[in-house]
Amino acid sequence: MLKICPVTKIEKLNPEYYLLSFQDKEMAELSLPGQFYEIKIPGDAESMLRIPISVYDIREDEIVLMIKVVGKGTAGFMNLKPGDDLDVIGPLGNSFTVPENKNVLLVSGGIGYAPLFLLNKILLQKNNKVTRLHGGRGADDVFEAEYIFTDDGSIGEKGFVTIGLAKLLKENKYDIAYTCGPDIMMKNCFEITRKANLKLEVSLEEYMACGIGVCYGCAVGIKDNSKQGFSYKRVCKDGPVFDASEVVWNE
């Protein structure tokens, strides 16, 4: 659905990340972990295309989005004030599966933390035991988790988050894992979980133009029984959540 919604809060987390909250009771009730919204500032001539942003949290009738500043488009939302209008389409895409009473792993990198935050919240409500691993370049690129990894060692353990994943799988038994982050990180997560015979769901991040499945700009290869062994699926419409074993990972 397309709506003009009021901004309720802008919360700066650090120089690179902030939370944008907007209000709509209907959208909040429909939003699921793993879904996203396409947003833009009404009347902003510089933002011709909407920007896809994952749902970070739902707080009663508010939808909270985590945004990383990577250019003028994402930086522009920081200038909004409570009461300003936000042009919104969503919620879009599919969602993560949510089991009950399971032992669960969440593995994220950088802005990939966003969709797993709401998932963690829902998993805990369903009596799951959740362990979170989160990695980033440095202290400004990571957030709360049981295990934190940074490239520069400024906080947590120095190294890649996949090192922690491999170690935990040797020491413990888990029922399912979820991941979101850079493609190479998710691919490595799949290789590690595959060897441990652990199901992994991934939230893919691809460039999106329309966000509603029309342009096929976000198509990725998904394995099937066709002659070539795969077909192209749209991350915005068929995803963004996929079973990692079905994804055709790039070398």
Quick tags:
Rossmann fold; 3 domains; Elongation Factor Tu (Ef-tu), domain 3; Dihydroorotate dehydrogenase B (pyrk subunit), domain 3; 7-stranded mixed β-sheet; 15 strands; 6-stranded antiparallel barrel; 251 residues; 5 helices; alpha/beta
Ordered list of secondary-structure elements with their pairings:
Blueprint: E1 2-12, E2 17-23, H1 25-30, E3 36-40, E4 51-59, E5 62-68, H2 72-76, E6 85-92, E7 103-109, H3 113-125, E8 129-136, E9 147-150, E10 157-158, H4 161-171, E11 176-180, H5 183-195, E12 200-203, E13 219-223, E14 230-234, E15 241-243
Parallel strand pairs: 7-8, 7-11, 8-9, 9-10, 11-12
Antiparallel strand pairs: 1-2, 1-6, 2-5, 3-4, 3-6, 4-5, 12-15, 13-14
Written overview of the protein:
The chain has 251 residues and is an alpha/beta fold. The protein folds into 3 domains: 2-92, Elongation Factor Tu (Ef-tu), domain 3, CATH 2.40.30; 96-203, Rossmann fold; 205-250, Dihydroorotate dehydrogenase B (pyrk subunit), domain 3, CATH 2.10.240. Helix content is 19%, strand content 36%. It has 5 helices and 15 strands. The protein has helices spanning 25-30, 72-76, 113-125, 161-171, 183-195; strands at residues 2-12, 17-23, 36-40, 51-59, 62-68, 85-92, 103-109, 129-136, 147-150, 157-158, 176-180, 200-203, 219-223, 230-234, 241-243. The strands form 3 sheets. A 7-stranded mixed beta sheet has the order 10-9-8-7-11-12-15, sandwiched between helices. The protein has a 6-stranded antiparallel β-barrel with strand order 1-2-5-4-3-6. A hairpin with a 2-residue loop joins strand 4 (51-59) and strand 5. The model has no long low-confidence stretch (mean pLDDT 93).
